[in-house]
Design brief:
- With 260 residues, this protein is α/β, with parallel strands linked by helices.
- It has one domain: NAD(P)-binding Rossmann-like Domain (Rossmann fold), CATH 3.40.50.
- It is built from six helices and nine strands, in the order βαβαβαβαβαβββαβ.
- Helix 1 crosses helix 6, helix 3 runs parallel beside helix 4 and helix 4 runs parallel beside helix 5.
- The longest helix has 26 residues.
- The N and C termini lie far apart (38 Å).
- The structure holds NADP nicotinamide-adenine-dinucleotide phosphate.
- The site of NADP nicotinamide-adenine-dinucleotide phosphate has 29 residues, from helix 1 and strand 7.
């Protein structure tokens, strides 16, 4: 077991919520947090968290330290229940790692051109990638308001950078991540005044070998395709060093700043 502080300056064991916890980067983050003695408990959230075989196996090893929350983050009612379900076990969170996201799904395919754009697909991708993180922050704010350090880190993507957009395509995904960036940057400005212990981070994980990226990996060189374990380690290293002075930044896996 390692025993590295999850957030700089946090002296007590951390309570953490991870969304997108049943797959890919989120699942690897849950695994690494549970292997850390400085983590008191992990709340693992996804639509199917309570029926995920991978999370069930982790729960068999870690018992009460891992709590599973089956929640659809695009549902107002489900989102409204999250803070109460966490509150049964603890009165504060130190880290929220928001990894839920969608690139493709039944009825959703990243658009190659304008002709394939649809209102339904834009709305469903925005509901999760753009709206859910900030609405989750709203729902969890009471649990993040305390006298210890807290980080709200959310996975964005470099393709959400407007300044960096040279290739086009993937309208809904790109725009939903750009919207997430602006919503969470706005939150960071507000929390600088009202929730001064908190740091809001937008993170680009690199290209990671997960179900989300799998159909689009053909042109990615092997050296640039990270395992979820490597991505999780790199991202948790960035989170571990974050302070309120870094709040509102868009940071890549290697610590470099991504242009808006
Ligand atoms: N992989 C990459 O190369 C890459 C690159 C840049 C950015 N990212 C970003 O990194 C994040 C994680 O991606 P990943 O590659 O790990 O994806 P993934 O393996 O497809 O995992 C996505 C997760 O989101 C959950 N989820 C989907 N819809 C949900 C909903 N409505 N409510 C709650 N949870 C929901 C899924 O679980 P359930 O099905 O159980 O709900 C799953 O746990 C995403 O935000 C993605 O945009 C990934």
């Amino acid at each position: 077991m390692n025993a590295v502080s999850v957030i700089v300056g946090l002296d007590t064991p951390a309570n953490v919520l991870v969304t997108g916890a049943s797959s890919g980067i989120g699942l690897a983050v849950v695994r690494q947090l549970l292997a850390n003695d400085r983590v008191a408990g992990v709340f693992a959230l996804s639509r199917h968290a309570e029926t995920s075989p991978e999370l069930a196996a982790l729960q068999a090893d870690h018992g009460e330290r891992l709590q599973l929350l089956s929640v659809d983050l695009t549902s107002n009612e489900a989102l409204a229940s999250v803070a109460g379900r966490i509150n049964i076990h603890c009165d504060r969170l130190h880290l929220v790692f928001s990894a839920a996201g969608v690139l493709h799904a039944p009825g959703v395919t990243p658009e190659k051109s304008l002709t394939s754009l649809s209102r339904a697909s834009l709305e469903s991708v925005f509901a999760l990638n753009a709206f859910a993180p900030v609405l989750l922050a709203q729902a969890l704010a009471p649990l993040l308001r305390h006298d210890e350090p807290a980080v709200f880190a959310s996975l964005s993507a470099r393709v959400g950078s407007i300044g960096d957009n040279q290739l086009g395509g993937w309208y809904a995904y790109r725009a939903s991540k750009a919207a997430q960036n602006q919503l969470l940057r706005t939150l960071a400005v507000e929390w600088r005044r009202t929730l001064r212990n908190a740091c809001v981070l937008l993170l680009h994980p690199g290209t990671v070998d997960t179900p989300l990226s799998r159909p689009f990996q053909a042109n990615v060189p092997e050296s640039k395709l990270f395992t979820p374990e490597r991505a999780a380690r790199q991202l948790l290293d960035i989170v571990a060093q974050a302070t309120p002075a870094n709040s509102g930044c868009f940071v890549a896996w290697d610590g470099s700043t991504v242009p808006w």
